[in-house]
Amino acid sequence: MARTKEFNEDQALDKAIEIFWHKGYNGTSAQDLVTHLGLSRSSLYDTFGDKQQLFTKSLQRYQQQAQDAVKELLEKSENVKETLQAIFKQAVIESLEDRITKGCFMVNSSVELAMHDEEIAKIVKSNSQTMEEVFTNAVQKGQEAGHISKQLDAKVLARFIFNNYSGIRVLARAGERNKEVYDDIVKAVFSVL
Amino acid sequence: MARTKEFNEDQALDKAIEIFWHKGYNGTSAQDLVTHLGLSRSSLYDTFGDKQQLFTKSLQRYQQQAQDAVKELLEKSENVKETLQAIFKQAVIESLEDRITKGCFMVNSSVELAMHDEEIAKIVKSNSQTMEEVFTNAVQKGQEAGHISKQLDAKVLARFIFNNYSGIRVLARAGERNKEVYDDIVKAVFSVL
DNA sequence: AAAAATACGGAACAATCGTTCCTGAATTAG
DNA sequence: CTAATTCAGGAACGATTGTTCCGTATTTTT
Known about the structure:
Chain A has 193 residues and is an all-alpha fold. The first copy, chain A, has a single domain, classed as Tetracycline Repressor, domain 2 (Orthogonal Bundle). Chain A contains 9 helices and no strands.
C-alpha cells in the first residue's frame, strides 16, 4: 500500500561521493547536496538522516568500491609487479586528466576529519589495514613467483607502496600537473621491488 | 603620540598556525581564533584583516620556518644521507609523540584548500618547488660524496623523498600510532638511496 | 475507492558563521 | 595636560549553516 521509491539510493550516494570528494565535508553545504543529488531537502533527510550520516555512508561506499577494484586486480593477476605498475599508472593518469582534481576521497577525509570524528577514524583505520593486507598478499605472491625482490619483507614493501600511493594522491590534490614528477616517483618506487 | 602594541604580531601568528594546523581553515571559527590568540575581536581584525588573510599569513610563516629548518640542516651536513635519515626519524617521532596529531600544516592545507583557493595553491606550489630544489641539491651532494647511490638521478630521488615525506604526514594525521609502520616505510625509502 | 507511503517545494527554525561597529579604559608622545 | 593610538568587551550585523515541518501532489497496494 505504499508508493515505490523513485530514486536509487546507491545512485544518490554516488553523487554524494562526488561532491564530498570534491569539496570536503565542511566545504559542502546542505544546499550543495540538494542541488547535486537532485533530491528535495525532505527526501534527503528522510532517506539519509543528517549530513554526517550521509557523509559516513558515502565514504564507506567509496571504500568498498576502491578496495574491490584493487583487490580483484591483484588477486587475478599473474604478474603482480606489472599489475601494481598498472595501478600506479592509472592513478597518475587520473591525476593528470581530471580537470577537477579530487585526489583520493579517503586521503582527503582522513586529513580533514580523522582526528575530529571517531567514526571516520575507524573507517580510515580499517581501510589502511585492508589495503596493507591486500598489498602484502600481492607482494608475497610476486616474491614467490620471482617477480619481486625478496630483499625486503612483504609487509615492509606493502606499507611502502601504500605510502607512496597516498603521497601521489596528495600531489594530485595539490594540483600537480607535471607528468614527470609522477613518473619519477613511480620509477623510484619500483626500483625497490 | 600613540600607544604601543602590547602583543607581538609574530607570536600571534604562531598561535594562529597552531589552531589552523589543528582544526583546518573551515574547522576554525572566528571565536576559536579570538580565544586561542588571546586578542579581542577588534584587535584581531584590525591587525590581520580577515580570516583568509590571517590564514594565508600563517601558512606563509609556517612554510618559511619549515623550509629554513630543513635547508640549514642539509646545507651544513657532512653526510647528507644520515641527515636525511635524521629528518625522517624526527618526523616519525613527532607523529608518534604528539598527543594531538596535526600532521603537516602544508599537506593539510593543500588537501583542504589548494583546489579552491588560488593563493593557497600558489604557496603550495612554491613550497613543492623549493623542497624539490633543496632535496635535489642535497642528494647531489650525497652522490658526489659517495654516500648515496647514483643509480637514479638526483631529481628523481628528491621527488621520491618528498613524496614519502608527504605520505608519512598523512599517516600521522590519520592517527597511525604504530611505530613499525613508520619504520618500515623509512627502511624501504632508504634502501633506494 | 480508500489508505498508505513517497516525493516535492518551500517556509521556517535556531544556531553559528565572519565581520563591523561602538564604548570606554589604558597607554604613549608631544 | 592633551591628543593620539591601541586595547578589550560586547552588542549587533546580515548571511549562511544544518535541520525540521507543513501542505500537497503522486503513486502504489489493498
